[in-house]
Amino acid sequence: MEMKEEEKKLIRKTGIQRFFKKRWVYPAVYIGAAAIILASFLWFQSRGDEGNPKNIGYESNPEMNLADKDAMEVNMPVENFEWPVANADEVEIKTPFYNANASQEEQESALVSYENSFQPNTGIDIVAKNGETFDVTAAMSGTVSAVEEDALLGNTIVIEHANGVETRYQSVSDIQVKAGDKVKQGQVIAKAGRSLINEDAGIHVHFEIRKDGVAYNPVEYFKKPATSLKEVENSTGTGEKADEEANDSSQSDGSDEGQTSPDQTQGPTD
């Protein structure tokens, strides 16, 4: 019995020796040991990071902040142009936008008369149905680029948006923003007011949408994003890209011929 036990031990020993004589055994052992050590190191490191308050969140990593900011911008919903009033159901258009392709009658209704001269209306003139003042709001989020006080043309607010797009709010009073302010869509920026150039319009706001200096018909772009504005001149627009001085003189408010007919007046639409 003792001989058999010794023989078994000898056989086991011989088998183990043969196993370790194989070429792939030692590299495999080394690789396995290295993997265990590396895994242990990473585990302890992660445990240490959890206990370190400096590593909590993404604020400690500027690169992660940038990526997170980009992701937020990409996921932000695209805004559509909205009526520049707090309650669109309570207002109407007194003087429409001058459409170069419209009928003669429609074009005449969109001309602004001042001191025996006529100019095409480069926006729309909005009045309250009850004739009273009303809140003027930002039609789209952006940055206020200019606030100008002008009794003749009416006080003006210009808001810049992306890709050369801007909205203009003229003949306003009680201005609540200044140049450089960032405004949200629907934010109250002023009250409807008056202008000397269009006294007969009464209390109103002259609203414009421009891209690269070219005026577009706001009514055609309500409920649409700024990207819907064409790169080329709009066939329904004035087709003119004026300099700053010409812009100031052409941004006139409403005609003094009174209220347009129901067919010419375009009210808010959903």
From TrEMBL:
GO terms for molecular function: metalloendopeptidase activity. Residues 248-261 have a biased composition (Low complexity). It holds the Pfam family Peptidase_M23. Residues 225-270 are annotated as: Disordered. Residues 120-218 form the M23ase beta-sheet core domain. Keywords: Membrane, Transmembrane, Transmembrane helix. It comes from the Bacteria. The chain crosses the membrane at residues 24-44. This is Peptidase M23. It comes from Caldibacillus debilis. The lineage of its organism: Bacteria, Bacillati, Bacillota, Bacilli, Bacillales.
